[in-house]
Amino acid sequence: MITRKVLGKTGEKIPEIGLGTWRMGGGSKPDRSRDKEWIEAIRTAIELGMTHIDTAEMYGAGHAEELVGEAIKGYPREELFIATKVWPTNLRYDSVIRSCEGSLGRLGLKYVDLYMIHWPSEEVPLRETMKALEKLYKDGKIRYIGVSNFSAELLEEARSYLSVTDVVANQVEYSLLNRSIERDLFDYCRREGVTITAYSPLAKGRIATEARSETRLGRALREVARKYGKTPLQVALNWVVYQDFVIAIPKAVSREHLEENAGASGWRLDTSDYEYLSRVSAE
Ligand SMILES: NC(=O)c1ccc[n+]([C@@H]2O[C@H](COP(=O)([O-])OP(=O)(O)OC[C@H]3O[C@@H](n4cnc5c(N)ncnc54)[C@H](OP(=O)(O)O)[C@@H]3O)[C@@H](O)[C@H]2O)c1
């Protein structure tokens, strides 16, 4: 069973381990060569309880959203939590509205659960983008507003432009191999009730290499894994979601990887082991 956590201050609970889709359906261009496999991966993730699916209009230039749309057909809508993002070149008011319509079309949905600014832009005033997001919210096209790759300062500014709702999540890179957000964003989000969605929680696959290596962290992951009867990778993911305001969206395609990632939830590291791994990874 995947542990669920309250999203922002919404009171709604979503799975602490979801599914990322970057590079399903291509990089910056569509790639249709493995569609069947990718659709199957998304369905397997849902069956395993990873019903939070993260995608973006940029992924495969829209094809990742099409794959998600195909994969979720037949599942009860309210059991899914579909998150997507608007690319920084589309942050003017009208472009945000158009981008969202485009994403809804490709996903085959009437609304998305979470709509995020993918990256901040220095060209478009943030106020303008936030007003467009709030319009989509009021029109029922998006249930929640989020941001991605925002500093605490920018997140605070984004929130100040909203009047009827709040930013529920900030999607940022976070893993045992990249802990830079702990410097300021962590405390801000904990205090303000903003969920941190950890992207690249497996450091894009580097955690798996680390877990096999003879580094201090590699050895520590194996040692803790033995103690809990889990795999080193499950320990690494469980470490990422240790705090109650942090969730993660590892990307995986094979059933083996998906099952392993789902098994990273439903249990908790003891504080002493969490701190041990934190210490070792900071060395
Ligand atoms: N907002 C942003 O700017 C941003 C930036 C980057 C990523 N993201 C989101 O975050 C998601 C996750 O990040 P990510 O894709 O960069 O990296 P990640 O989830 O840290 O790592 C994905 C890599 O790890 C492998 N993997 C997955 N599970 C595994 C397991 N159990 N054992 C061994 N290897 C495993 C995957 O292989 P297979 O695919 O072969 O299974 C893939 O190569 C993305 O897909 C995307 O949705 C957002």
Just give the CATH class. Alpha Beta
Query: Helical segment tally?
Result: 11
Spatial order of strands in the largest sheet: 3-4-5-6-7-8-9-10
Major sheet, described briefly? 8 strands, parallel
CATH topology: TIM Barrel
DSSP strand (E) fraction? 15-25%
Structural class: alpha/beta
Please specify the SSE layout and strand pairing:
Elements: E1 4-6, E2 13-15, E3 19-20, H1 35-47, E4 52-54, H2 63-71, E5 81-86, H3 93-107, E6 112-117, H4 126-138, E7 142-148, H5 152-160, E8 167-173, H6 185-192, E9 195-199, H7 206-212, H8 216-228, H9 232-240, E10 246-248, H10 255-262, H11 271-282
Parallel strand pairs: 3-4, 4-5, 5-6, 6-7, 7-8, 8-9, 9-10
Antiparallel strand pairs: 1-2
Helix pairs in contact: 1-2, 3-4, 7-8, 8-9, 8-11
NADP nicotinamide-adenine-dinucleotide phosphate (NAP) binds at residues 20-22, 54, 118, 148-149, 171, 199-205, 208, 233, 249-254, 257, 260-261.
Explain what the structure shows.
By secondary structure, the protein is α/β, with parallel strands linked by helices. It has a single domain, classed as TIM Barrel. 41% of the residues lie in helices and 16% in strands. It contains eleven helices and ten strands. It has helices spanning 35-47, 63-71, 93-107, 126-138, 152-160, 185-192, 206-212, 216-228, 232-240, 255-262, 271-282, and strands spanning 4-6, 13-15, 19-20, 52-54, 81-86, 112-117, 142-148, 167-173, 195-199, 246-248. The strands form two sheets. Strands 3-4-5-6-7-8-9-10 form an eight-stranded parallel β-sheet, covered by helices on one side. β3 (19-20), α1 (35-47) and β4 form a beta-alpha-beta unit. α8 (216-228) packs antiparallel against α11. The longest helix is centred in the middle third of the chain and has 15 residues, at 93-107. The radius of gyration is 18 Å and the shape is globular. It starts with a strand and ends with a helix. The mean pLDDT is 98. Residues 20-22, 54, 118, 148-149, 171, 199-205, 208, 233, 249-254, 257, 260-261 line the site of NADP nicotinamide-adenine-dinucleotide phosphate.
